[in-house]
Protein: Phosphohydrolase
Organism: Sporanaerobium hydrogeniformans
Amino acid sequence: MSLISELKPQDTVKGNYLCKYKQLLKNKNGKDYISVRLQDQSGSIDGKIWSIHLGIGAFEVNDVVEVEGEILVYQENLQFNINKITALTEDSYDLRDYIPHSAKDIQILEESLFKHIDSVENPFIKKLLEEVFYDEAIYKEFLVHSAAKSVHHAYISGLLEHSLTVTELGLKMCELYEGVQRDLVLAGCLLHDIGKLQELTAFPQNDYSDEGQLIGHLVLGSELIHDKAKTIPDFPLHLEQLLKHIVLAHHGEYEYASPKRPKCIEAMIVHLADNNDAKLKLLEEMLTSSPEKEGFIGFNKILNRNICKVNL
Amino acid sequence: MSLISELKPQDTVKGNYLCKYKQLLKNKNGKDYISVRLQDQSGSIDGKIWSIHLGIGAFEVNDVVEVEGEILVYQENLQFNINKITALTEDSYDLRDYIPHSAKDIQILEESLFKHIDSVENPFIKKLLEEVFYDEAIYKEFLVHSAAKSVHHAYISGLLEHSLTVTELGLKMCELYEGVQRDLVLAGCLLHDIGKLQELTAFPQNDYSDEGQLIGHLVLGSELIHDKAKTIPDFPLHLEQLLKHIVLAHHGEYEYASPKRPKCIEAMIVHLADNNDAKLKLLEEMLTSSPEKEGFIGFNKILNRNICKVNL
Amino acid sequence: MSLISELKPQDTVKGNYLCKYKQLLKNKNGKDYISVRLQDQSGSIDGKIWSIHLGIGAFEVNDVVEVEGEILVYQENLQFNINKITALTEDSYDLRDYIPHSAKDIQILEESLFKHIDSVENPFIKKLLEEVFYDEAIYKEFLVHSAAKSVHHAYISGLLEHSLTVTELGLKMCELYEGVQRDLVLAGCLLHDIGKLQELTAFPQNDYSDEGQLIGHLVLGSELIHDKAKTIPDFPLHLEQLLKHIVLAHHGEYEYASPKRPKCIEAMIVHLADNNDAKLKLLEEMLTSSPEKEGFIGFNKILNRNICKVNL
Amino acid sequence: MSLISELKPQDTVKGNYLCKYKQLLKNKNGKDYISVRLQDQSGSIDGKIWSIHLGIGAFEVNDVVEVEGEILVYQENLQFNINKITALTEDSYDLRDYIPHSAKDIQILEESLFKHIDSVENPFIKKLLEEVFYDEAIYKEFLVHSAAKSVHHAYISGLLEHSLTVTELGLKMCELYEGVQRDLVLAGCLLHDIGKLQELTAFPQNDYSDEGQLIGHLVLGSELIHDKAKTIPDFPLHLEQLLKHIVLAHHGEYEYASPKRPKCIEAMIVHLADNNDAKLKLLEEMLTSSPEKEGFIGFNKILNRNICKVNL
Amino acid sequence: MSLISELKPQDTVKGNYLCKYKQLLKNKNGKDYISVRLQDQSGSIDGKIWSIHLGIGAFEVNDVVEVEGEILVYQENLQFNINKITALTEDSYDLRDYIPHSAKDIQILEESLFKHIDSVENPFIKKLLEEVFYDEAIYKEFLVHSAAKSVHHAYISGLLEHSLTVTELGLKMCELYEGVQRDLVLAGCLLHDIGKLQELTAFPQNDYSDEGQLIGHLVLGSELIHDKAKTIPDFPLHLEQLLKHIVLAHHGEYEYASPKRPKCIEAMIVHLADNNDAKLKLLEEMLTSSPEKEGFIGFNKILNRNICKVNL
Amino acid sequence: MSLISELKPQDTVKGNYLCKYKQLLKNKNGKDYISVRLQDQSGSIDGKIWSIHLGIGAFEVNDVVEVEGEILVYQENLQFNINKITALTEDSYDLRDYIPHSAKDIQILEESLFKHIDSVENPFIKKLLEEVFYDEAIYKEFLVHSAAKSVHHAYISGLLEHSLTVTELGLKMCELYEGVQRDLVLAGCLLHDIGKLQELTAFPQNDYSDEGQLIGHLVLGSELIHDKAKTIPDFPLHLEQLLKHIVLAHHGEYEYASPKRPKCIEAMIVHLADNNDAKLKLLEEMLTSSPEKEGFIGFNKILNRNICKVNL
């Protein structure tokens, strides 16, 4: 079955995809047609059902559908001209097969996460991390959540992967400088984006929640720490403040919606590690998804520049 | 007894003032002298004790002292040349006599506050306001706290005065536009700076707390709403989110340390009312404290411009 | 007759609308067709006349036309597929029926305007306001002019409505602060946008004039004050300067094209009141025109954010 | 008699200078002393009269005084230790000898000005220039006014010199491009800063007037054109608008307090020519006043960088 | 033969043009069609070959083709509906006839260039200019290269024309100020954009090279000076540094990708002259290409404003 | 002998220090005195020689002097009241004892440097690194040079230490992402600041050279790569361009004086690693030099915020 990323103009295709968007429209001559967006792990494509006949079965957004048709180029983008479409029954597929996910081995990431928690020496910080990551409701979501709606890590287990890469970078920085509180950096790295569990809805939607739009993942993360710390007897107020500070300051500057800028070296490390991973993952995703071997592979809107792939 | 704002070069003065700063120094010839800063309701002045003799009694920062000496001009500022100084006993004065306070009648402000709370129709918003302002520990502080370390409303009851002026402005805006949720605006106006109770320490210090520097009054206020809402049975989650949004967004733009920008008209009103009062109180304080009748009265550093006083 | 705001896909429509745009084009096959834009009080819609036959009468831009046809969706927007179109004779309609106008009662606004002018105590300011608003040529236009080409108050009597709301807000601020010259604030509020009479052409065009593009409404307003003040014997030069300052400074900052920033509290009040109304009217227009009861109702390009409608 | 720019530490000096500042102060021991600022064409120096005795005659700010004393270094600046001081009678000196002035030959500048006016072909533009520069009250001031309070051209005839250099540059640009209206550029260059006659008071003060602070030289210049154009029969409105546009737009960008940005090539030329002269005169003044032959000669605050003098 | 700039809707056209772009596409019904872009000295136009038949010969990008067809309007732009197309043989045309070029007389520009070089008095600067412009490989390219990919001077000999206009402006500034090193300014003007020979590929591509994207013309120009200076015995290091500084600083500010800002008056002159020509050439190109006689002729995206053409 | 960092008010001191500044001045009474600045590894202090007598020997800037005197507080800073001063002979001390230096073991840093070079697989990159670091003149300076005039790493071997920490961080990032060219990152990290050898003069001056001010270390580093690459047979042009790009882009954004922004992931890594070390070293220097155990330890001007030291 063809992956969407491999479709080419003039291909004749039969395959199963997740329907992410569907709208009934009318053309100039008043004839009905349907516009859809199809998705699998490898990408997505717009499709048109120009003629509505027997081969066009009932289906809804977020159904997985079996589709037949041809690939065209329309206004410089590929378009799927659909001749047949049928919804599959929910028990006949695994939704996760149709959503992009982390390329890393999740089990290794999980082991790494718990080894990090075990390595914490400060008992309050350790207890707090356990309260969060041993909380089944939280952990179940943390394992699969994305770290973004789009841009980078916008896939299943993106949050887990991002949190652990940030931790790797943060711990490396702890080694290189004097007087850094390693436990605080580690907790900051693991928790800095925990508010994304509330800011973004679960897959397949993976979109901003009301709460996300009104409060945001920085303050939601800070609030989670506040609530969890309350449940731990004698949790030091100053430690709660420092952890909340690290989360609130991790975007680094006011203009990136941080209500505080990093004021201790631990908060600065978490911010820098997060920023490093954001920029580098963005580039890695662009480089690995490009079919070019080397040279300028296209314009990146986020970075606002052409990107060059190097191959010595 | 002379108010500091009325001291003039060459005055011989005897008076009581609050000592805000004290340091033992040495002059070029190795002789000890003491540098102090004295304050009353009307302002503050630097002082020097050039010669340490019997008339110079023991005193500490935040003591009220009886002082005798003369007023000089040194590098374009007034300076108090102190000949005698004695600490008063704590029961012989009221500290609040030596700290600037609101020019408004506090009792009228209090009545106004409770009338506003009574006017709320939504039972959950009303209950939340009562949980905050009927909480004795909070209310006692709210009555006397400043709204700033300096800049504007940096005096006793400044927070109370500011919150109520913002409410006046916010309610006026509610009248002028369709479809505004008045109860939400009112609660937002009264609560928007409530986190300043934690951000700034009480008088006579009135300085940024650690918590203030690490978390900030926007998130502290949002957290207070979160904690109080939890104590109210069935408090609607969406309402809690909206109230927190209003507090988190009241600085209006990211660069002023708001983690969210106003997304509903109620949050926009609270932001605008707060901004109006900040700018206008700043100007009012400058105009009323200037001895000039009209014309350009000096440069305002916050606004970065010369200010003109008008008298038709 | 159907209001444009109420048209839906697949409607068959017959109605009268103002033609705002008309162009003869050719399709791929070299066949002529006509593209138009139709408007009424409630909004506007693009239309196509695909086939030019007897039912397509002569008509020009700014004619009111009787139209028959069907409503389609084209590239996510509604489109009027026109089968018949005829221009109405000029005496058979009132142009103002086809242009959006203020939702407020104009007579009440007028009464309010003159009560404000009557309340002025300073004889020179009062005389100047009378010279402006009792000038028949000015007043006739002031009653119907918009306050903007688009964005907010872009409708008949928008300037009148905006000027009076700004006045309401400005006068409220006068009450709340010491030492504000009320007469100056009032005149500033009423006159701050008077230059828009020259900056924007009258309806139905309501577009930037050459003068508007080269000089702008701030300087045009300042010039009007200059010219009117000259006609009043003994008009104090300083008062003329202050009034011009208020008008020139009402955008608040250089980057919003103000050649001066507010330097007296009166100019600051006019600027803040204007800014309040601009932001809040923009939101009010979006909230009242949205069919949604509550929740996020769409992205606002001017404010660059999603907007949330609240309904407790 | 020693020029102030030539004074050195330990010099014993007797000379005549203009007193720009005078204040009676008290030292630590309560003894009176006087602080002054003295000026001549070459620069200015602070002075102190430590002991007030018979040799210290009566004198006021803006008097020319005969002074005797010695030159010291105090906190890295020269200071004049005054032993004797006497005011000269007003008829015994020419105030202009004590104020810096243009290094150019004024008569040549004047001839150049009138040759430029004569060269104008458009009769309305020519008439307008004559109304301005043949107006005796304006011309008398134009000949001596500075073009700035400080920064560059802050000397007698600075405005004349600046206006003519801008004209030279503007006319050169007219030669190099197609379709430029030379008369409009010429008038724009000569008139662009004419509002400085009102913005800055005459020498010896040369300081911002109230009008300057409230209205500014861009709008004041535009207003002068407006008033003069009215006196010329049939002056084309469009031409008045273009001339006002050029003056209002000559700072080039909103953030430099231009209410309009240049929209025609003629306005762009005037803006660029003005900007060129501002930057280059600033550097020329710094280079010619530096005693160094070459190399880095110091930090320029306006340009915010070290400046290098080149000598091949 | 019709120039592209003169094509109008409904024209039937037969002519020769350069093919700049070609792509085989499929329409909705799966039928192949070809999209092209055609260009001549006067401009460019999109074209479609809807039907691929015998009249459609083989042709490639950068071929000159003979084309027949009709001109339509599609989505507000002209479009060439192509019926016949044939590639011309390479020896039957001069590629330069199909690319826009400078309107100036190239021979006069060349004479002017060498007269400028001859006028240099400093022997090292003169030698360096000769090393560059007498280098046949460089000079051959310099004569025809553009000064930009688009925006302004994006035509054959654009670099030559731009360099000489900048020189004219720079030399005029040298006349007007004291103490400017004319030879350095002249060399700076002639060399400031020399790195564009490497930054942009030759015509007909005229696009950014890899080197251009990775290094940029400022550093490439500085490097050329470095390499050429090395070949001149005893070339003073300080002079090399100054020339490189002028080239590196000619964009004036960091945000325009200058790694240094102008620190000597000579660098400032080159920067200002370059900036003047960039802005004015942009406007001249817009004014001369507009068919309107006067008035607002359209929106300029680079300057972000409407442009007004003046005709007194 | 007392380290400057350990001096306290009222100490009587005898010690050897490097004289960094010396000026002969006159006090109010015309008496000569000398102002100096003394420095050792631990910091620096201002000093005054109020009375010039036999104990005051001849000495110059950059001499090491033996000094006797007392420590006072003057305007909140320590001041050294010097009674005796004598220059030591040059052979009686090691200048490096009086200049701050890296706290790291230099031999370990050197070993690390060469191990990194050995690890390079690409023969051209390896050869280029050897050409630079095996060049005796370069290497001798590289070992001792600072990485800054002030701010961070402004000490002996600061450049070496900084380059290696950046390398550590860069190599960690190489491990974490797919498809990164490790050799290029490694070379970029080691070479990114190599231009500082020319930008800053050697110790004891450690100040900006003319070349540094006119060209800057980014372009100077790029030029060094250019010159060294030329000496290596068949060095690939594209590789030279990439290495120069990495150096030119390492400040990340135009406003930080990078003429190019990072366009390949390798350049991005070098930029991020450099930025990480700059921010974290700055904080580490502040934390380790503060005598406080924890809490807010003062305002950092570069970061423009109060800094908090954490101690769990």
